[in-house]
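in:
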């Protein structure tokens, strides 16, 4: 196994990632952040499972207000996920140890402000409150201009986005940051991180396969990416993103520790020969952005009722919220993204309508059969 990349050290609260430090294992709460009691209970549960850092979504002012009470009840290393709400950075930074922002989400609001101005605002808040930053690039929310520039290469826009934001932070003389480049395809995760590490080997990398889905498939996809990257010396902290009920979130930590232990001791699992072929169900991890907990049950049901189509090279995406849903279902043959009282159904980037939770499975099967009858490609 190759020696770890000589990345610089980045402190996150009481722990440090990078250089030759042990790889840290992270997870994310699935409770509504403004529900202080439930969120604190889940943070403590994740800590008990071995979490080094716990992330929470901050979707609005009520979530931001809750962070002071949360911080008073836990000494955990906390990360606030700003989503599209970059202006909340200065309100939440005093109560967390790291701020995570997605470069692709900075384009949506206050378009009179430049990206550089928005990043400078986040960096200033982080610096003032002694916080680290994660630049979290996600396949489903990359700057459209970059996507247009690189055409069929879906990996290049992610890498370029990450490099651009590193340059902005460097110009601001803010070095306490790490980067993540995530996709639901583990092979793209491998390639994106290899490309980035080749350009900026000193930047610590947070590894993860976004929307890995339900276990055990979600664990397998994640293991494939982690084994390939960590064996090449790439990676400083990890998250296993699984679609599981709230009371099973600790499984993300347990599985992450298992993978790291296996890699450390040379126990590499064989990569399935048909990885990437056949029916592919992707679903995002349960988190506090999910507006209806029926999302997890729906993802499980989709997996069950579509087994008959396992030999077809089709992708079905099941997303739990309005943040990831619209963009990250575009590349799927069929996509479902869940609102509080209904589920939006898509074929690629085209909307097929909205259906109740009790109606969506029948409609999904109708559309799936249409794709199969129209000549969907088969495995092998």
């Amino acid at each position: 196994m190759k020696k770890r990349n000589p990345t610089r050290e980045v402190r996150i609260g009481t722990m440090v990632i990078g250089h030759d430090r042990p790889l840290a294992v992270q997870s994310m709460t699935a409770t509504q952040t403004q529900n202080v009691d439930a969120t604190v209970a889940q943070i403590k549960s994740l800590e008990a499972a071995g979490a080094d850092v716990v992330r929470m979504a901050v979707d609005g002012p009520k979530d931001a207000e809750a962070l002071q009470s949360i911080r008073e009840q836990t000494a955990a290393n906390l990360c606030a996920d700003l989503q599209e709400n970059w202006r909340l950075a200065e309100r939440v930074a005093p109560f967390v140890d790291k701020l995570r922002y997605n470069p692709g989400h900075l384009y949506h609001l206050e378009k009179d402000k430049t990206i550089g101005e928005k990043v400078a605002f986040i960096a200033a808040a982080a610096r003032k409150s002694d916080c680290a930053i994660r630049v979290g690039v996600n396949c489903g929310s990359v700057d459209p201009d970059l996507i247009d520039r690189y055409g069929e290469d879906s990996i290049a826009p992610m890498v370029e986005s990450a490099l651009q934001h590193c340059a902005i932070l460097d110009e601001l003389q803010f070095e306490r940051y790490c980067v993540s480049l995530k996709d639901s395809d583990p092979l793209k995760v491998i390639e994106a991180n290899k490309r980035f590490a080749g350009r900026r080997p000193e930047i610590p990398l947070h590894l993860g396969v976004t929307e890995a889905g339900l276990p055990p498939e979600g664990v397998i996809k994640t293991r494939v990416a982690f084994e390939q990257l960590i064996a090449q010396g790439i990676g400083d902290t990890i998250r296993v993103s699984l679609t599981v009920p709230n009371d099973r979130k600790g499984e993300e930590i347990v599985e992450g520790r298992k993978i790291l232990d296996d890699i450390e001791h040379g126990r590499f699992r064989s990569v399935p020969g048909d990885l990437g072929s056949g029916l592919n169900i992707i679903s995002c991890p349960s988190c506090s952005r999910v507006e209806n907990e029926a999302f997890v049950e729906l993802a499980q049901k989709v997996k069950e009722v579509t087994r008959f189509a396992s030999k077809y090279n089709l992708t079905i995406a099941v997303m739990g919220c309005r943040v990831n849903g619209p963009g990250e279902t575009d590349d799927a043959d069929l996509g479902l993204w869940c609102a509080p009282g209904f589920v939006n159904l898509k074929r690629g980037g085209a909307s097929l309508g909205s259906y109740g939770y009790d109606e969506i499975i029948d409609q999904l099967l109708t559309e799936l059969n249409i794709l199969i009858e129209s000549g969907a490609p088969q495995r092998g």
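note: Residues 336 and 345 are 5 Å apart (CA to CA).
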